[in-house]
């Protein structure tokens, strides 16, 4: 897997998460909300399940969509150090080793296992993935899973996606795409449009002009356009989730 500084750079948001820590299948998980029928799995970016921003976003989903949200640890307890990351000293962080240990091949089985656990417990299940989590949610929505593991997916500023992931998605998919993104390239964006129109999969594409990869989870609210992008992305995802988890 390749990685760029944009995958880890960004800002930590103010606020205190209000959820709890529990388990999903064999994985520790941050859990927010108490709906017994509808759940959302969030597959985080490489900053992981403890990042306050991701937990705060989970709280918003739980509260505004009336769902129970799970943010599992998919990195076997490994957490990238925030101090050098926040100060831009990326050379001090073993990103290559981290991604090797947490490759698609290594992590996909447990991501699927956690989703199966949700499907066994809840009537309706959605999945949302940001950056690293983008490929995972596309895989959860793949046509090979019968019956479907999830009812819909949201992918925001996805990374590590290949064309086959898009070719095989078979559930309604929402795409949140910053204008500048060296990981979700213009070619992949075009392939998404062309492929999903051919396959007939319901999709909802949101273009975020003037912002870069990372802004939807780690944007700076003091930076022009990034706060608006974060709010718009959150609101769009909640609308998509409600549409497919609570449709008659």
UniProtKB/TrEMBL annotation:
A GO molecular function held by the record = hydrolase activity
**Pfam families given for it?**
DLH
* Regions annotated as coiled coil: none
InterPro entries listed in its UniProt record: AB_hydrolase_fold (IPR029058), Dienelactn_hydro (IPR002925)
**Domain Dienelactone hydrolase, first and last residues per copy:** 35-245
Output the PANTHER family linked to this UniProt entry: DIENELACTONE HYDROLASE (PTHR17630), DIENELACTONE HYDROLASE FAMILY PROTEIN (AFU_ORTHOLOGUE AFUA_1G01900) (PTHR17630:SF55)
User: Protein name, please?
Assistant: Dienelactone hydrolase domain-containing protein
């Amino acid at each position: 897997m390749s990685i760029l500084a944009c995958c880890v750079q960004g800002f930590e948001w103010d606020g205190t998460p209000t959820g709890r820590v529990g388990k999903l299948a064999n994985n520790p998980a941050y859990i927010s909300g108490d709906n017994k029928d509808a759940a959302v799995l969030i597959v985080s970016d490489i900053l992981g399940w403890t990042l306050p921003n991701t937990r705060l976003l989970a709280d918003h989903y739980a509260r505004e969509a009336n769902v129970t949200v799970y943010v599992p640890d998919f990195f076997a307890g490994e957490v990238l150090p925030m101090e050098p990351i926040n100060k831009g000293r990326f050379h001090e962080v073993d990103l290559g080793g981290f991604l090797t240990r947490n490759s698609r091949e290594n992590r996909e089985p447990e991501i699927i296992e956690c989703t199966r656990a949700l499907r066994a417990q809840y009537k309706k299940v959605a999945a949302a993935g940001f950056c690293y989590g983008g490929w995972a949610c596309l895989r959860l929505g793949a046509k090979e899973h019968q019956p479907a593991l999830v009812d819909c997916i949201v992918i925001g500023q996805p990374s590590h996606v290949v064309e086959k992931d898009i070719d095989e998605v078979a559930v309604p998919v929402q795409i949140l795409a910053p204008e500048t993104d060296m990981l979700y390239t213009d070619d992949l964006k075009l392939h998404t449009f062309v492929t999903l129109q051919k396959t007939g999969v319901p999709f909802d594409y949101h273009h975020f002009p003037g912002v870069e990869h990372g802004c939807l989870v780690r944007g700076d609210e003091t930076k022009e356009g990034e706060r608006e992008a974060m709010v718009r992305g959150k609101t769009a995802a909640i609308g998509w989730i409600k549409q497919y988890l609570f449709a008659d």
